[in-house]
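Folding Problem: From Residues to Backbone Shape
Fields: amino acid sequence; protein backbone structure tokens
RECORD BEGINS BELOW THIS LINE
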Amino acid sequence: MGSSVGRELVEELSAEFQGVSRSLVREVVQGYWADFDNEPEAEDEVRKRARCKLAQIREASKLDKNEALVILDSAFPLCPREVLRSAATSEKTVVHAATTLLAGGPLAVPRRVPLRVQDLIPDKEYKEAAYHCLLNEFPLLWKSQITAVMAERNHDYPSARSDCLALMRNRQASFFDGLQRATHTVRRHLRLEMERRAVEESKDVDVARELNRRQYADLGEEVECEICYDAVAWEDLLGCGGGHLFCRGCLLRFVQELVGGEAGPAVLARHQGSVKCLSMDPCDAPIPTLQLEELLPGNMRESFNSFLLASNIPLARRKKLGISLCPFCDGLCVGPRSIFAILKQSWVALSLALIVAVVVLRLRNLSGFDFWLLLAGRSLWACAPVVALLFLFLPNVFGGDTLERNFYLCVVLYFWTMSKRRPAVLLAMGELRRRVTGKRSRDLRCTQCHVLVCSGCNREAHNLRCFGDVPAEGTVEALQHFVEEAISAASIRVCPECGLRFRKGDGCNKMTCRCGYVMCYVCREQVSGYSHFCQHFRPAGGKCDKCHKCEMFATPDDNPEMVAAGRQAVALFVAKHRDIGKRIYAVTAFGLTFEVAG
């Protein structure tokens, strides 16, 4: 880069882009100047390209934290939400955050879950409002307890409120509880204000609807309902997929009869899964469920959704699908069907299976190289999934060891699926992979919100072991390890200062984080010394009858989540290995003892 020309260009661009550091401007100019072999005649072109690049960098630095989080989530779908939030808040720009994430490497299991409201980075006003609401609602909890809970829940008010309720239930009563002020007054005023606004909005909607109906009547542009044949306004009509229109009153009465059980068996069978068209014409087009939910009152929507869910479950079971209720949207989570059910529903696949079986048996004397050349032909390439089935169930036809057959199987399925993208073949490929590896997938995909749900713990799919992953070995060591993992997952604490996740195995309950924050492991309260803990002598090691302070060396036996997790792990292990109860009577993990029933 020319010394005088380059310095002048850097000075010019630095003055123009004051929000960008001078070193970054110099790097951009040097990079573009090197493309032109440091020719002074290319100054105008370098200035043009550098100005465009610096404008993009300046716009990226102006992004909001949540905007940067959405961009990072779309670019890194395999990365956990906690890592994305940390990168978006710690780095200056989204470019620096992306560089940090790329240095970390990919994960093993794709998350593929859209960002929810509680996953976003809350602003300062929301944090303060949620914090003061919790302080007002839970005056008997310490401020440090509420601060720790909010840090664990990403400052999400509903989640933090649930944890505070659990802390209140486990809290021992004190003498000064009767002197605390009541919080029901604030909640009552808030509830009354919300009810008043809802009533006013409902009245406004009714007035606007009546004015709209009169305007349609004056102009003579009303539309006829195909059930009651009344002339109504266009905004008061709902339609099916076939174009038939019905008024809101008729649909409301029909849904009430359908949900209330007043409809006959024939009507219930017709409207199984969704509400179909009610016209006299032979039309089976469904009426959009979202429009019906907007039509129904608030106390009836839950009953309507329960009716649709109950009618959808038998349909899915008849198709031999793995069924589960989605914990995020109350929808249906379905798993992959068996390969035999897929082939049974596709006569084309069965025909191709017979044709390819004959061809393969006729060509079994050819060498492996000649066979794969023939398989690459266009006529047989469409039969690749069926050839993969023959690899699996007729291994002697192709010869070779198990590793070689599995490798050919993966190659055939991969390239055929990438070219076709057929859903049925994707399900078949997943089933074949599980048969080859001998593993069953525990992940189910929700058909409504498309979240991947773990069937073992009914939560979002994860890499870690869940309570449903009972080990195949029925030994005492396997039971001990399984229970310890279950308790460890339920005893995680989060530092409210730096966000470090930790767990205490034994020892003192005064926990000091690496950032210097000191908290009580039992109640999550911030402490400064040992006066927070009980100092009285207890001969038998029981509860103190002189104070209600936390114990210094108390085992987590009073933690209901850890106890419930350990009991559930023992119950699942015993259900799979029933003879374990004959060899061991109890198992101890982290100071907790669980009885093993045979």
